[in-house]
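Q: My labmate handed me this sequence with no annotations at all. I'd like to see what the chain might look like in three dimensions before we decide whether it's worth expressing. Could you predict it?
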Amino acid sequence: MSQTAKSISKHVNFDQLRKDFPVLSQKMNGNPLVYLDNAASSQMPVQVADRLDHYHRYEHANVHRGIHTLSQRATDEYEETRKKVQHFINAKSQDEIIYTSGTTDSINLVANSFGTLYFKKGDEIILSEMEHHANIVPWQMIAQRTGAVIKVIPVDDNGDLDMEAYKKLLNSNTKMVAIVHVSNALGTVNPVKEITGLAHEQGAAVLIDGAQAVPHKTVDVQDLDCDFYTFSAHKMCGPTGFGILFGKKEYLDAMPPYRGGGDMIDKVSFEETTYNVAPFKFEAGTPPIAAGIGLGSAIDYLQNIGMDQIAEREEKLVDYAVNRLKMIDGLKMIGTPKKRASAASFVFDDIHASDMGTLLDKRGIAVRTGHHCAQPILRRFNVPATTRASLSFYNTTDDVDRLIDGIEYVKTFFE
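A: Here is what I predict for the chain of 415 residues:
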């Protein structure tokens, strides 16, 4: 059952929810903290932090290896998260859910395993101009090894994909389309279902980088019909160092293991090793058990609020922020996409982004500055760096107002 089907209409007191995040009650440089760097990493509620603490105090043991009660308990809790993820993104089976160290690790796994199996000289991989480096570099590396060629979907002046150009890039040589669901640099929400359908018409597989989408909206991988979907726990109120790769079973069964070691094996001898089945054949070594259990707790927390309610809340917040930012003299928005989620980036002609970020920090306002690990899209807009404000459901219009006041304060230093 999808999240949408499970979601019910209810009133959520988001102001009350802020109390679940003690970090937000702190002062930074003598000012109340305004945390607007959620695209880099969201904050963790006490419920998740307490769950991690409980595991470390009372449940710690290695998983999948012991017959003693503590090991069985840890294994059960760790594997329960796989079921939660399955339902959270509406995968057909929990066997399609692979644990990784994060989105970057997930993409590397697919690039290396899928690419080794399916790519040959002259095959084509389609990316977009707005990809995070994590969805560029692994494909470059496998392309160099296999002779595959990378093609790039251009982005228009608004920050939207040029879908007509994408259609022209697709052909019988296309083997993989790897695309971001929501741009971390622009906030653009891409039409990934349409992108997937067009790719499948040419027999190509599709990987969607969902790191910036899963925390903010309902994701249904069966509805999208994508072949792979990736995301990270720390961007959705969970721990760092843990992530998810969803893959369709037919691909996972065919793909070779990416790493070797314990737990991904069936039988080992010096003459031959046979491998476990998916998802376990992709999960070598002792995993970050606490982080896996923590992701399960984070999913519980988000679903208790309701992903539809979160999306509605954040849509209003980001619209409010963009409208207020546009009113500031001298500020230029980088990207005005048709659909936006969470993030808004901007520049000033005479104020460097690093200066903006440093001076905002003195007012207790945390934003991200730089190229956001997405240098190609910043070159597309002819800017070396931007200031990015990224919102979550626990932010408020007061946070946005503090940001606006802070920007006006920074401007006075350069007048």
